[in-house]
Specification:
This protein is an alpha+beta fold. The protein has two domains: 17-217, no CATH class; 235-359, no CATH class. Helices cover 43% and strands 22% of the residues. The chain is built from 14 helices and twelve strands. It has helices at 2-15, 25-31, 45-48, 54-67, 77-93, 137-146, 200-212, 220-226, 242-258, 260-271, 296-323, 328-332, 350-359, 365-368, and strands at 39-44, 100-108, 124-131, 156-162, 165-171, 183-189, 194-198, 234-238, 274-281, 285-292, 334-338, 341-348. It has a twelve-stranded antiparallel beta sheet, with helices on both faces. β9 and β10 (285-292) form a beta hairpin. α4 (54-67) runs parallel beside α13, α9 (242-258) runs antiparallel to α10 and α10 crosses α11. 31% of the residues are buried.
């Protein structure tokens, strides 16, 4: 009887948009997974910060960002806008890097194909962040009003509730066609400690999943890859959509005549389950990039003909030319195969970070001002 009453209560709460229970940040982040996600990114910044290399690595990353200001290719240019939006929002909210505990992003790429412009409005995606301290609704509204996310034009901002969760919505029907968003919903969960960013349908669906206690399932390939990410600080998962597989298969067929070996590898990629990039921090920072193929034979081809013959030697040569000597990172680089997975692995130590910081040191302002065509002295 008690169980029946409880189930009935949950049903009524979901039906009338009432919060079932006070969700935890962990439960909220799970609900941010969109159905049939093609891309999933997770970063546990709180865990990564415990590494003795964290501070030094962050300084080096900031230094590299100053030295190399290159943008994304045209097809991925919206990611530059998205990064600028996130940076501006954090600044307006008064959020520093150490204030963000975890980030989770999931995207369904069913509406995108290689070579096309990214259209954020057409994608089912949710960006979620967990903060150390709650975000105030007033601050959030002000940050959205001042942000140029909608093309720098005046927007209509409203405050509503969905499934008992406060939501700030931003809408501008007059935004230019190439604006990052014409509509944005920001849900404030866990009393402002977790924010969901996304379109109306995506955010509403995520809140419905949370209220019902039914998180979306990882797609087959992503589920298999995600199992190996439990001890990592960060992971990035990608599984190609069926249209993408078709494009890769077409390219593989074109390659068969000119380069049969590469054609065979690409044919394997057309059937692959996906790729995963992981980061695990401790006394050193371990990186791993793995390709999960359909068969062990395909994985052997990728490892021997692509990773061992092309990627590994080229990367080592490039770094040797830049650094001029062997480092722990270069010595750690290796490839592995386990069943149907081919992997490239490497580890960064404190010594590596010190060496890279010196190599990528920003040029003095006087050097930057030297006219083109006149060698610097």
């Amino acid at each position: 009887m008690k169980m029946t009453s409880y189930v009935l209560l949950i049903g009524l709460c979901v039906l009338f948009g009432l919060p079932v229970t006070a969700s935890t940040p962990a439960e909220a982040l799970k609900a941010a997974l969109v159905p049939n996600a093609s891309v999933v990114f997770f970063s546990d910044l709180e865990k990564a910060a415990k590494s003795p290399l964290a501070g030094q690595f962050e300084q080096f990353r900031d230094q590299v960002n100053v030295v190399q200001q290159g943008g994304m290719p045209d097809q991925l240019g919206k990611w530059n806008d998205l990064a600028a939006f996130a940076e501006s929002m954090a600044k307006d909210l008064g959020v520093k890097r150490e204030d963000i505990l975890r980030n989770f992003v999931s995207i369904n790429l069913a509406q995108w194909m290689f070579g096309q412009q990214m259209n954020m409005q057409q994608m089912d995606m949710v960006f979620a962040s967990e903060f150390r301290q709650p975000i105030e609704k007033k601050k959030l509204r002000t940050a959205l009003e001042e942000n140029s996310v909608l093309g720098g034009v005046e927007s209509i901002i409203d405050e509503i509730e969905i499934q008992g969760v406060p939501v700030v919505s931003v809408f501008n029907p007059d935004a230019p066609a190439d604006a990052l968003f014409t509509q944005l919903f920001v849900a404030m969960l866990c009393e402002g400690r977790v924010l969901f960013f996304g379109g109306e349908v995506a955010v509403k669906s995520a809140l419905e999943r949370l209220a019902a206690g039914k998180a979306a399932e990882y797609a087959e390939g992503l589920a298999e890859m995600q199992q190996g990410c439990k001890d990592c600080d960060s992971f990035f998962l990608f599984a190609p959509t069926e249209p993408m597989r078709g494009k890769i298969a077409e390219f593989a067929q074109q390659q068969q005549a000119a380069n049969p070996a590469m054609g065979n590898i690409m044919a394997g990629f057309a059937k692959m389950k996906g790729t995963v990039f992981t980061v695990k921090s401790g006394d050193k920072i371990d990186f791993a990039f793995s390709v999960l193929m359909a068969t062990a034979e395909d994985a052997t081809l990728v490892k021997s003909m692509l990773m061992d013959s092309m990627v590994l030697p080229s990367l080592k040569m490039m770094l040797m030319q830049k650094i001029g000597k062997m480092t722990p990172l270069l010595e750690s680089m290796k490839t592995e195969q386990k069943d149907n997975a081919a992997s490239f692995k490497a580890s960064v130590t404190q010594e590596d970070i010190s060496i890279f910081a010196e190599v990528f040191k920003p040029a003095p302002e006087n050097d930057a001002a030297v006219p083109v065509g006149i060698p610097a002295q």
